[in-house]
C-alpha cells in the first residue's frame, strides 16, 4: 500500500438493513490514516476479503479434492469430502457477505488476529469498543470491557 497521510483511520460497520440490522456495530481501526473514505473502505475490504479467502474460502469451499472432482463428468458431489460441487466462483461474494454478517458472533480465536496474511501486511484491526469514538467523558459512561454477559447475569442474580 502507498504512503497515507490523511486523517481517516476508523471505520464503524453496521451490518444488515432496517429491521434486519444487527444491534451492535464493529469498529475497525487502522495503523495508518487515509485521505478519503473510499480509500479507507477499499483498504479494509481488501484485508477482510484476503482474510476470508485465506482462512475460510480456500480451506472450506475451494479445496483441491473438489477441483479434481469438478473435472469428472456427471457428479454433483466431491468424491473425497462430499461437498456439493456448485459453481463456487459465482458464490464467493455471497459467502463473503455471509461471513461478514457472522463476524459479530465470532471470538478473537475464530477471527484469527494476524499482522500479515500470505506476506501482506495488515493495517486494520477490528473489534475495538465504540467507547473510542463516542466522545463522552468516562464519568458519564459505563464501559464493560469484557464478559458483559457475566456482568449482566450477575446483576440479576446469577451466582458464578
Ligand atoms: Zn472436496
- Total beta-strand segments: 5
Strand order of the largest sheet: 1-2-5
Mean pLDDT: 85
**Largest sheet descriptor:** 3 strands, antiparallel
Apparent shape: globular
Count of helical stretches: 5
Give the radius of gyration.
Answer: 20 Å
Cα distance, first to last residue? Answer: 48 Å
> What structural class results from the helix and strand content?
alpha+beta
Helix-strand pattern: EEHHHHEEEH
Fraction of residues in β-strands: 15-25%
SSE diagram, text form:
Layout: E1 8-13, E2 26-34, H1 37-61, H2 64-70, H3 92-102, H4 108-111, E3 116-117, E4 120-121, E5 124-128, H5 148-155
Antiparallel strand pairs: 1-2, 2-5, 3-4
The chain binds zinc ion.
Zinc ion (ZN) binds at residues 63, 65-66, 69, 78, 80-81, 83.
If you had to describe this structure to a student in words, what would you say it looks like?
The protein is globular, with a radius of gyration of 20 Å. It has helices spanning 37-61, 64-70, 92-102, 108-111, 148-155, and strands at residues 8-13, 26-34, 116-117, 120-121, 124-128. The N and C termini lie far apart (48 Å). Helix 1 (37-61) crosses helix 3. It has one domain (8-155). The mean pLDDT is 85. It is α+β, with helices and mostly antiparallel strands and 160 residues long. The strands form two sheets. It has a three-stranded antiparallel β-sheet with strand order 1-2-5, with helices on one face. A two-stranded antiparallel sheet has the order 3-4.
Quick take:
With 160 residues, this protein is an alpha+beta fold.
Amino acid at each position: 500500500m502507498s504512503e497515507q497521510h490523511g486523517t481517516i483511520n476508523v471505520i464503524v460497520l453496521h451490518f444488515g438493513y432496517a429491521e434486519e440490522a444487527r444491534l451492535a456495530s464493529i469498529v475497525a481501526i487502522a495503523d495508518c490514516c487515509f485521505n478519503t473514505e473510499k480509500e479507507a473502505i477499499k483498504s479494509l475490504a481488501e484485508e477482510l476479503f484476503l482474510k476470508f479467502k485465506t482462512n475460510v474460502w480456500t480451506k472450506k469451499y475451494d479445496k483441491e479434492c473438489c477441483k479434481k472432482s469438478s473435472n469428472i463428468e456427471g457428479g454433483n458431489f466431491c468424491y473425497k469430502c462430499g461437498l456439493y460441487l456448485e459453481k463456487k466462483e459465482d458464490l464467493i461474494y455471497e459467502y463473503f457477505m455471509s461471513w461478514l454478517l457472522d463476524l459479530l458472533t465470532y471470538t478473537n480465536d475464530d477471527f484469527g488476529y494476524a499482522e500479515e496474511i500470505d506476506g501482506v501486511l495488515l493495517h486494520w484491526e477490528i473489534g475495538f469498543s465504540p467507547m473510542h469514538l463516542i466522545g463522552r467523558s468516562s464519568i458519564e459512561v459505563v464501559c464493560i470491557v469484557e464478559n458483559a454477559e457475566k456482568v449482566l447475569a450477575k446483576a440479576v442474580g446469577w451466582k458464578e
